[in-house]
Write a structure and sequence with these properties.
Length: 246
């Protein structure tokens, strides 16, 4: 069994997930970098962590696949004997207006963002109950609170993550396990980089702080919720959005 806290971060090969993996490693955790697509990007994150003196391993798993999740978490628990922190970050978007959205685009976003979060929680819950400790942090979104035109599937999945978080928090609290969600607003990632300059400017105007956040802003909040200091915080949704959801 590792002396370090063992942290699983899903979708950790880029963007917010990458920043979370780096921050947890800086705080002393052994980080399991989960990825589904690019092994090269996952390797880059591991190299960055190791360059800073941290410890990380990479594991491929499609979180939308229940059986694959079962095997993934069984492997981690067998190897390290515990899972202290689970960060459900893996997510996709397939934006369109409802009247044009295909049933596949709706289903795929729900499968990864909501069902994937359930699959991972389902697999760690028994181990955390046995340990009588654990931190679960789920990535929601401000659009899961406010909705957003053209993102019915994404908003529905993230609203679902919030409901799932609160339910899991109530189920597991008596065993010393916390479950919280962070709800990022517009964060500087590959997704927002693809927006046109005019859209970026218009969006920034809607944010009280008039600027996009950075992946590190989300990562530091997640690291706090994963820490011992946050032991009496559960079932909460922390908006990291420059005031956008107010």
């Amino acid at each position: 069994m590792s002396d370090k806290k063992v942290a699983v971060v899903t979708g950790a090969s880029r963007g917010i997930g990458k920043a979370i993996a780096l921050e947890l490693a800086r705080n002393g955790a052994l980080v399991i970098i989960n990825y589904n697509g690019s092994v090269e990007k996952a390797e880059q994150v591991r190299s960055l962590i190791e360059d800073e003196g941290g410890e990380a391993v990479i594991e491929q798993c499609n979180v939308a696949d229940y059986e694959a999740c079962e095997e993934f978490f069984r492997t981690v628990i067998k190897r390290y004997g515990k899972i202290d922190i689970l960060v459900n970050n893996a997510g996709i978007t397939k934006d369109d207006l409802v009247m044009r959205m295909s049933k596949d685009d709706f289903a795929q976003v729900i499968d990864v963002n909501l069902k994937g979060t359930f699959n991972c929680i389902r697999q760690v819950s028994r181990q955390m109950l046995k340990q009588r400790s654990g931190r679960i942090i789920n990535l929601a979104s401000v659009v899961g609170i406010s909705g957003n035109a053209g993102q019915a599937n994404y908003a529905a999945s993230k609203a679902g993550v919030i409901g799932l978080t609160k339910s899991v928090a109530k189920e597991l609290a008596s065993r010393g396990i916390t479950a919280n969600a962070v709800a990022p607003g517009f964060i500087e990632t590959d997704m927002t980089e693809a927006l046109s300059e005019s859209v970026k400017e218009h969006t920034a105007e809607m944010i009280p702080m008039k600027t996009f956040g950075r992946p590190e802003d989300v990562a530091k909040a997640v690291a706090f919720l994963a820490s011992d200091e946050a032991g009496y915080i559960t079932g909460q949704v922390l908006c990291i959005d420059g005031g956008m959801a107010m």
